[in-house]
Design a protein that fits this description.
Blueprint (H helix, E strand, L loop, with lengths): L10 E3 L2 E3 L6 E5 L6 E6 L3 H19 L3 H17 L1 H12 L3 H21 L6 E3 L7 E8 L2 E5 L7 H13 L3 E4 L5 H14 L6 E3 L5 H10 L3 E7 L2 H10 L6 E5 L4 E5 L5 H13 L9 E7 H16 L19 H16 L3 E4 L12 E6 L4 H4 L6 E7 L2 H9 L6 E5 L3 H10 L4 E4 L18 E2 L12 E8 L5
Parallel strand pairs: 7-8, 7-10, 8-9, 10-11, 12-13, 12-17, 13-16, 15-16, 17-18
Antiparallel strand pairs: 1-2, 3-4, 5-6, 6-20, 11-19, 14-15
Helix pairs in contact: 1-7, 2-4, 2-5, 2-6, 3-4, 3-6, 4-5, 9-10
Length: 482
């Protein structure tokens, strides 16, 4: 494989590229080919403590920089990301299996958060409150919360870092990043560019490890870490929340989903099909906001299934580095096994395979459509995280809303309708943090990203994102008129 100058084979702590104290190494594998791409330090709790200590030591000087100074470094980081867009996208693709066209899009998306928070750094406004007595003045300011830890997932190895550390760095928080064992190379490439941008030693740290549980526990229990941001499964999020209780750590948790996609009888069916395809099969169905259940009204059910099936059959599977390819591999054998189990269960309970349903080679699996899905199927309750789209029937608006909300999750939801009154009613009734109305792609740096119920809490991106890395301080000045 051609060696890339952004592929780093060491972790980064306190301004230095370092190895694990134990000398242990981990391997990173290309899911499309099975090829070992690189060997990296396999770090332990001793290593992460050093990173936390370095970040804590760097905090006073970094938080005391002006917002404009921090913004200038972030802006340089953004420029470097965009200058190295092709190489970053290639790294994303070879370690995550994401097709090249989507990886290029992810670099743009991820960079947008760095650009946005470079601008928002200068807008962390406070308040002057009208006093309750004549001799007092009441002021509210916002200050950096302190060392921020980011635990990121493999499905967006670049954007999930920038979406978390962009606001942290803008707010004056040094960061300790723990990328997943599947996709650490993207994190280290970003770190290389952050170093070039000029973040002071200790402000930006990246730990690589195969022992996620122990490193996560240290990040949760160490009192020097004041904020933890995690994207991943709900069960792991609950563990991290419990482990953070001893230090009452500030948390942002973006957890699992079970996104419904509702097609009403007055929808533009062709547009709904396009929205469903892009939302369901992006990164082979392996995103937190991917459609998991498609709910279609009886009178347009057959029409939608026919057109949707045809569109899915046109998706191209192949070499992930080919920009014309739309479907890549699943991330690992565990993911492949889950897809097969969900299809087997659905078929046993009466679902009809309209297209797909079979493995291709290695971790590749055919994009699949299941008609006549029912609520008793596993795929109705669990996030499949793969290229399988079950299509359910409903009769009334009330039934659609009930079916959509019948889950403990509440991250993303989608529906298609031309009736503006129905749009308002349904959007307000859906118990989700985000709703796409006649749109299958809703993520953007200018809007708040996050869920409710067991999909977590906290918001990333938008003007709200900075607040989750800041503390509000109230100052009361007395004796002003004396």
């Amino acid at each position: 494989m051609e060696q890339q100058n952004l592929i780093k084979t060491e972790a980064y702590v306190n301004g230095q590229w370092v190895k694990a104290a134990s000398g242990k190494m981990l391997e990173v594998t290309n899911p499309a080919t099975g090829e070992v791409i690189a060997s990296l330090p396999d770090m332990n709790r001793e290593d992460v403590r050093k990173a936390i200590d370095a970040a804590d030591a760097a905090w006073p000087a970094y938080r005391d920089m002006t917002a404009k100074e921090r913004a200038a470094i972030l802006r340089k980081w953004f420029d470097l990301i965009m200058e190295n867009k092709e190489e970053l996208a290639r790294i994303v693709t070879i370690e995550s299996g994401k097709v090249m066209a989507e990886s290029l899009g992810e670099v743009n998306y991820g960079a947008s958060f760095v650009e946005w928070f470079a601008e928002e750094a200068k807008r962390a406004y406070g308040d002057v409150i009208p006093p309750h007595t004549k001799d007092r003045r009441l002021v509210v300011i916002k200050q950096s919360v302190g060392v921020a830890a980011a635990i990121t997932p493999w499905n967006f190895p670049l954007a999930m870092i920038t979406r978390k550390v962009g606001p942290a760095l803008a707010a004056g928080c040094p960061v300790v990043i723990k990328p997943p064992v599947e996709t650490p190379l993207t994190a280290l490439a970003l770190n290389e560019l952050a170093e070039r941008a000029g973040f002071p030693p200790g402000v930006y740290n990246t730990i690589t490890t195969s022992d996620s549980s122990e490193i996560g526990k240290e990040l949760c229990e160490n009192p020097k870490v004041r904020k933890l941001s995690f994207t991943g499964s709900t069960p792991v999020g609950k563990i991290l929340m419990s482990q953070s209780a001893s230090t009452l750590k500030k948390l942002s948790l973006e957890l699992g989903g079970n996104a419904p996609f509702i097609v009403f009888d007055d929808a533009d069916i062709d547009e709904a099909v396009k929205g469903a395809v892009v939302s369901k099969y992006r990164h082979n169905g392996q995103t937190c906001v991917c459609v998991n259940r498609i709910l279609v009204q009886d009178s347009v059910y057959d029409q939608f299934v026919e057109k949707f099936t045809k569109a899915v059959q046109e998706l191209k599977t192949g070499d992930v580095l080919d920009t014309d390819v739309q479907v890549g591999p699943l991330i690992n054998e565990k993911g492949l096994k889950k897809v097969k189990e969900h299809i087997r269960d659905a078929v046993d309970k009466g679902a009809k395979v309209m297209t797909g349903g079979e493995s291709i080679e290695g971790l590749f699996f055919q994009p699949t459509v299941l008609a006549e899905a029912t609520p008793d199927m596993i795929i109705a309750r669990e996030e499949v995280f793969g290229p399988v789209a079950p299509v359910f029937r409903f009769s009334t608006d009330e039934e659609a809303i009930q079916m959509a909300n019948d889950t403990e999750y509440g991250l993303a939801s989608y529906f298609y309708s031309k009736d503006v009154n129905r749009c308002w009613r349904v959007a307000e009734a859906l118990e989700y943090g985000m709703v796409g109305i006649n749109e299958g792609l809703i993520s953007t740096e200018v809007a708040p990203f996050g869920g409710i119920k067991e999909s977590g809490f906290g918001r990333e991106g938008s003007k709200y994102g900075l607040d989750y890395f800041m503390e509000i301080k109230y100052m009361c000045f007395g004796g002003v008129n004396k």
